[in-house]
Design brief:
Blueprint (H helix, E strand, L loop, with lengths): L1 H8 L11 H9 L2 H21 L6 H45 L6 E2 L2 E8 L10 E8 L2 E9 L7 H14 L6 H19 L10 E9 L4 E7 L5 E4 L3 E3 L22 E4 L5 E5 L1 H4 L11 H5 L7 H16 L7 E8 L6 H14 L10 E2 L6 H13 L5 E5 L2 E3 L1
Antiparallel strand pairs: 1-2, 2-11, 3-4, 4-5, 5-6, 6-9, 7-8, 7-10, 8-13, 9-12, 10-11, 13-14
Helix pairs in contact: 1-3, 2-3, 2-4, 3-4, 5-6, 10-11
């Protein structure tokens, strides 16, 4: 088109130098070979224009052909370098994805009577994994889940995350109580930091973690917090309960006494959803410095399945922060689908409990694990607790959330 316009306008108007635009634009969407081909066509167009105007052998046309050749060569080299960097980035991204699969195994969508979904958002660009972590394991007739947050973010925190994940997958099957499990993880972290902690950061490397145990046949959940934020408990009646836990010290600080890790017990029946998260969610801010209202926003989607729930939270969080996260974010949603327990036996246990023990007015907030020989009584106590008024709930009326 440029060549035809140059011939049509005659010798008084020279348009042929614009032919250099052709290889330049081609480099934006094509590779080096196509760019070089378009450059050759541009030089041919310059030669045809000079031949038709009778100036082919003039110094001006010769210089223009040489200039198009040089510029095309430079563009082809830059295009080749760009494609090589793109291939390198693709390989790096594939290695990062493989590392994520190895270090943090994908969680199953179902674990016994539970439905699971997870989301991981790394703060560092092009990173697939960082200092946040989660894992799950089946232990007999229960499921154990861990979510944690290494001090720091991004790839520098990957070592502690990999160590803790490996320790949890092994120790989850060896310890009967969450307190003993937390103590075992503390010992593993202490040994690791003693060997690999940088000298300038002695005593400053640790991991906050939340250990969760959900039995198949009881409507409850046991939790041990090692300095980690309490989860959200979403009820089927559009409520959000923020439990009051008894947090212990983070992992890696050298405190190995099991008594420092308290086991809190909460009711968790069919239709309930437990949302575990790291502090990258609650510390996320918008451009005005306003923190993300996590509990209030989650109250909008309590009736959604775990996958859809986390999808809405992820989109809302990224919109709140303008897609610029200050810290890694991990979210894990767990919903109980059913309780594989004999209903007749459960009814007898509930009647026996209600005849002998009524819930006291103080039974609000966090329900502590009683030392009882009859786990079914604890299930009845959890049911009574659910019917009581629990402070800290977020209820919705007419589409509005309030505390």
């Amino acid at each position: 088109m440029i060549t035809a316009a140059d011939i049509a306008t005659g010798p008084n108007i020279v348009l042929s130098p614009l032919l250099v635009v052709a290889p330049t634009l081609t480099a934006w969407f094509a590779g080096p070979w196509m760019t070089a081909g378009i450059g050759v066509l541009a030089m041919a167009g310059e030669a045809v224009s000079g031949w038709r105007t009778g100036t082919l052998s003039s110094r001006n046309v010769v210089v223009e052909v040489i200039a198009i050749a040089l510029i095309t060569s430079l563009i082809v080299v830059l295009c080749a370098v760009r494609d090589r960097h793109a291939r390198q980035m693709a390989r790096v991204r594939s290695v990062a994805e493989a590392a994520q699969q190895v270090v943090m195994w994908p969680l199953p969508s179902r674990l016994g009577p539970l439905r699971l979904a997870c989301v991981y958002l790394a703060a560092e660009e092009e990173a697939e994994i960082g200092g946040d972590l989660y894992a799950a394991a089946r232990t007999g007739s229960a499921a154990r889940v861990m979510i944690g947050d290494v001090r720091g973010k991004g790839l520098p925190a990957l070592g502690e995350a990999a160590l803790l994940l490996g320790a949890f997958r092994e120790a989850a099957h060896q310890h009967a109580s969450l307190s003993d499990l937390a103590t075992s993880l503390e010992r593993s972290m202490t040994r690791y930091l003693a060997d690999f902690e940088p000298e300038g950061e002695a005593g400053e490397r640790f991991v906050t973690a939340l250990l969760v145990e959900i039995p198949d046949s009881e409507p409850l959940v046991r939790m041990t917090s090692c300095g980690h934020p309490a989860p959200l408990l979403l009820g089927p009646d559009n409520t959000v309960h923020v439990p009051r836990l008894h947090p212990g010290p983070p992992l890696g600080v050298g405190v190995t006494d099991p008594d420092n890790h308290v086991v809190d017990v909460l009711p968790f029946g069919p239709g309930d959803t437990l949302v575990l998260y790291t502090d990258g969610v609650i510390e996320a801010r918008d451009q005005n410095g306003v923190f993300y209202p996590f509990a209030e926003r989650a109250a909008q989607w309590t009736d959604h399945p775990p996958e859809a729930l986390l999808h809405h939270i992820e989109r809302d969080l990224l919109a709140h922060t303008g897609r610029h996260l200050g810290d890694d974010v991990a979210l894990l949603a767990i919903r109980r689908a059913h309780i594989p327990h004999d209903e007749a036996e459960a009814g007898e246990d509930r009647q026996r409990y209600e005849r002998n023990a009524e819930p006291s007015p103080e039974d609000t907030g966090t329900l502590r694990a009683p030392r009882s020989r009859f786990p079914s009584l604890l299930a009845a106590r959890a049911s009574a607790f659910r019917r009581s008024v629990v402070p800290g709930r977020v209820r919705r009326r007419d589409g509005q959330a309030y505390f």
